[in-house]
Amino acid sequence: MSSYLCSTSDERQAMLAELGMKSMDDLFVDVPEEVMIKGPLNLPNPKSELEIRRTMESLADQNVRFRTILRGAGAERHYIPAAVTRITSNEIFVTAYTPYQAEVSQGILQSIFEYQTMICELTGMDVSNASVYDGGTAAAEAAAMCRDRKRSKILVSETSHPDVIGVIKTYCFGSNTEVVMVPAKDGVTDLDALKSLLADDSACFYVQQPNFFGMLEDCGALGEAVHAAGAKFVMGVNPATLGVLKSPRDYGADVAVGEAQPLGLPLSWGGPYLGFMACTTAMMRKLPGRIVGETTDDKGERAFVLTMQAREQHIRREKASSNICSNQALCALTASVYLAEMGPRGLAEVGQQSYSKAHYLANELCKIEGIKLVHSGEFFHEFVTTLPDSYRVLNALELKGILGGLPVKDGVLWCVTEFCTKADLDEAVAIIKEAYGK
Amino acid sequence: MKLIFELSKPGRGNQVLTPYYSPLASREPEIPEADIPAAFQRKQAPRLPEVSENDLSRHYNLLARRSFGVCDGFYPLGSCTMKYNPKINEVIANLFKFTDIHPLQPKHTTPGCQTVYALAEKYLCGITGMDAMTFQPAAGAHGEFTGILLIKAYHASRGDAGRKTIIVPDSAHGTNPATAAMCGYNVRSIASTPDGMVDLDALRAAVGPDTAGLMLTNPNTIGKIDKNILEITQIIHDAGGLCYYDGANLNAVMGVARPGDMGFDVCHLNLHKTFSTPHGGGGPGSGAVGCKDILKPFLPASALGETASPQSIGQVKNFYGNFLVVLRAVAYLMTLGNSGVREAAQTAVLNANYMKQKMEQAGYVCAYPGICMHEFVLDLAKLKKETGVSALDVAKSMLDHGIHPPTMYFPLIVHEALMFEPTETESREVIDEVCEVMAGILKTAYENPDACHTAPHDTVIGRPDETKAARNPVVRYQFDA
Questions:
Q1: What domain range is B3 assigned to?
Q2: Are residues B24 and B139 in the same domain?
Q3: Which of B16, B84, B112 comes nearest A62 by C-beta?
Q4: Cβ contact (<8 Å) for A31 and B454?
Q5: Residue B346: closest C-alpha in chain A
Q6: Helix (H) or strand (E) holding B87
Q7: Is the ipTM of this complex over 0.90?
Q8: A190, A203, A188, A274: which is closest to A238 by C-alpha?
């Protein structure tokens, strides 16, 4: 019995007999003969659990797990508290479906309600949905929320994550929407260029804080310009910074989105991650995806349900705000447990330490001849430096178990989080010095 | 029970990180704290919970006890394929050398991850009859979006600009028309025949030079295989359109018949349904998309991680998709192997037919007679007429017996629908017990319908007021000012 089946072949034969059938083939008489698979499948022979474990562990062993990671660019190694891993691996949370039956799903529904509240607190916005796939799709869905017949163009800052720009463009290819790229100047959005590109047909402007290069944008001025043109202001934010940085609401954002992988989710070669979306009350009915609301049951007790479903595909079909059905619920639960374990002081500590350690590394790197910061403004925990002979230097780091920064157009993009110690950073700097023969 | 915010007390919390300027930190000279410029600093801290780890642990355990997983009991949600989620797959998906791998590591440091995708592509192309596969889509609907964009890019590449319509049967999942609309298409809904099949005459009348493609689930949403499938896909191809296979119901035919051989050009798979990866209370899933060679040049690729074909639709998600979900599916496929995949599908279909017959013997009416595939639909219109007890009432009555209700009021073409999908990982005894409970509920419906109207009685809450929730949305906790 290799297929996690409960019944033996004798039992199955008895069940077939009760149906008046002789063999399994009798169940498939409606399948046209021409499409029935005749030969064997392109699969190996069944494996035992022990074999699977050995096979998969040996595959895992082929990967390099770096001791120190100084690379971010949309995926960051933060410390994941033990409580997060243990609590979220509860079998009930793991194996439940979308909470359609509220009476037996109060736990999941309440956990989403709590998640929505935490996202609202971090972003300062009024309403959050129950999650979308990741930061890229969150940005694309936000752009779709802002678009209407008159205002059809989506403005996107060139300083955004390239994958996020890519996802927005793909979604806009689907909806036949024009995307206008707003150029950068010294690593941040060019405000004058934005002003000249904004027009009567601009639906929204998307910018990230901090941006792809780690730079802090003047979001107050950007938001003001966007609103002056009658467009919506969409901000992509890193939630790990929101214990210390101003919230999207502080900048007047209409929609706040982002990638919540830094909130307790492992790197996992890119996924599963967590996209969050929050907006003002005014835009609430345009928000895609599941939303949990509070109500009362037939005895007047507090209860939670999936709500405002008139926005969704199973009710509205082609008129729905999005086609999203499954989301990233377990990842949203993970982020909630992370935020509750860390608390407001813990999250501030994550932000402050990431900021301080990144500035320490930047400072130490810039003491090396030939290395300097590429941009002149303020950065948070990522920054771009020049790095002469970068291939050789990054390789030297790799040989010592350190994943250096990501090569980008103007240099190398570094990322430092609270996970790194001073010793880790000093070691990296020493290896780089040695690579230059100093 | 209390919300986590109602457990919060100022000053409580956990020492996870080593803070600056504390006795804990005095062991080594720390990096000096750098000042975040005031212009960017937050003035008011987010009101996150301040709780001890013990409180946290108990809170979430209580939430789990107020939820229902496959580990709690029979979960026959039709179209959702709530099969058992193997434990070994969870163990593998928690190996550090998979979880602690950065998506932008140099390629030569991630051969294990790449092999997982290569194996997944090989296995799943074999099962679907497709030529190539992408794992970027994060869920079924996301896969539909990707697949329909491939069709859009294909027509665009041929300068075939007049194809603006996607045909969708009225029995389709809501995601199908919603997807077509997101991809900029008009949706043409075609009625099903009385026995739930695609109406060939209606289909012939619907196709034309504006046809971009067809979206179809097969077996369809009433749990039947469409006997005319080859004719259906031929009609679309003759009109110059392409055929999209919604893989929601692949569990019935995996290893038995392949979408590629049915004439489909592109399909998505729900790895979180058919291939046993857990649903996580609503995600993460994986909506892998397979396609024939003609659509391969348009497959998505990550801007930072891969080299895209110049004709690629771009990317639909950051990086490469929900890797850990794909990993679990590969482990599952290796476990089942060449014989187990077909055996799983056969047993799923057997269980559904066995249960369907038992339900009919108990007095329930199936919406469509004859052999079903992996799921079947009950039509409770007669019961409602005779007793006033609706499909909703029956579903809610099941809750008191520790059984998760089936999918309700879907497909839309059956008005009092309950759609059961028992899956292959249930034993005969479980199905027998559930059918006995269902017979009892039917008896109650006739003898004491009020007991059904007011069900459930033994759950942590009674029926919630959904209208109130929608009319006056309270979607976050309100702190006392």
A1: 1-66
A2: no
A3: B112
A4: no
A5: A24
A6: helix B87-92
A7: yes
A8: A274
